[in-house]
Amino acid sequence: VNIGWYPACSGLLMPGILPFPPPKVRATHPDCSIVLYFQEQEAECLEIIRSESQTPAPPGPSGQRGCLTEWDGVSCWSAVPVGQSQAVACPDILHVFKKSKALIQRNCTESGWSFPSPPYYNACELEAIGSNNDTEAKASYFVTMKVLYTCGYSTSLAALFLAIGIFSCFRKLHCTRNSIHIHFFASFILRGAAVFIKDAVLFSDESIDHCTMSTVNCKAAIAFFQYSVLANFYWLLVEGMYLQTLLLLTFTSDRRYIWWYILIGWGVPMLTVCVWVVTRLQYDNHGCWDDYTSLYWWVIKAPILLAVFVNFLIFLNVTRMLAQKIRSPDISKNYKQQYMRLTKSTLLLIPLFGVHYVVFALFPEHIGVDARLYFELVLGSYQGFLVALLYCFLNGEVQAEIKRNWGKWQSSMESNVFNLATQDFTA
């Protein structure tokens, strides 16, 4: 979900044809289906017109065919002889037109089709779409939200880069556990970068009709965003798997497993996105591939739900093993503290990152849009900062190593100052 979709699509692509001002719709899917509905109706009508133009006219008493099939921007009027009339109902579009039993009629005259009677704006009453104040309030709300998630992702990116630098600089922190943390941080960096790239590609130009936008750049931006989201969830899964492995193997690890973790964290999302891209190219290569109501969206959603489900099972199993080890009289107090320090971060992150996704996955994409936007954009933008805080900045091992190196640096500086002072005195 991205808030840039809301103010982007302002109408029904028929401003010069509709006899009433086109309703301003929120261009989130499925609201863009309003535009697609009229496009499909127009395409079907134009196909009928083409077939009629290729069919020779039947001989008549006056040699006149009457009124040909016509698309007026709202409805398709079938060909009828002169003197006859035709009636159509209002377009059946939910949340746009109120259901009305009134029919719009047009007569076929010698000079062609007459004007619709009654006009569309009288026969098809628009649903209430809010006042200008409501529209301005919505626009202000979305601007505020964009500022919040931009600040959130910027803060997260800065914290994550700093955390990666700390893990990389201190040799004592080089281990399999911290290598997994670095990959987890990198997935958050990709996710933040993907959000900024998507905003830059899709929503930098407000004059673009995002309901019909279908370029290579926008599809690549969406594919990269989906890959970063998948990698994010699968590296959280790797964190849970590694934690469970440590508890099962009594804190023994083998660096050979790191390649399996990398394959799961980066390889599975890449394979999933490749399958999704090929599927969209073959069967649903329309728009910018961000139609979350499409059935092919489950190619992305199902692996994420699987990762969340497996992580939940790991959460339950780790909690059970941790309770057993803490109660065991054979485990010393120091080991119990190690178990607690090791598990608290991952046990906090697993439910925090997975619960809201499962809740929203059970409802259609257009339900609870405001709450979905708030969780996924505003709160989600600070998840990277929270991860860096838990795994790095509040990590006792990291703090001890920083203090040790800071003490060594201070001692070195004091020694240098003393040597300089001594040299000056003796000189």
TrEMBL record:
Organism field: Podargus strigoides
Family per similarity comment: Belongs to the G-protein coupled receptor 2 family.
Chain ranges of the G-protein coupled receptors family 2 profile domain: 44-128, 145-395
Keyword Methyltransferase: no
One annotated Gene Ontology cellular component of this protein: plasma membrane
GO biological process annotation, one example: adenylate cyclase-modulating G protein-coupled receptor signaling pathway
InterPro entries: GPCR_2, GPCR_2-like_7TM, GPCR_2_extracell_dom_sf, GPCR_2_extracellular_dom, GPCR_2_secretin-like, GPCR_2_secretin-like_CS
Subcellular location: Cell membrane
Protein known as: VIPR1 protein
Any GO molecular function: peptide hormone binding
Gene (UniProt): Vipr1_2
Protein topology in the membrane: Multi-pass membrane protein
Segments crossing the lipid bilayer: 147-168, 180-197, 233-251, 258-278, 298-318, 346-367, 373-394
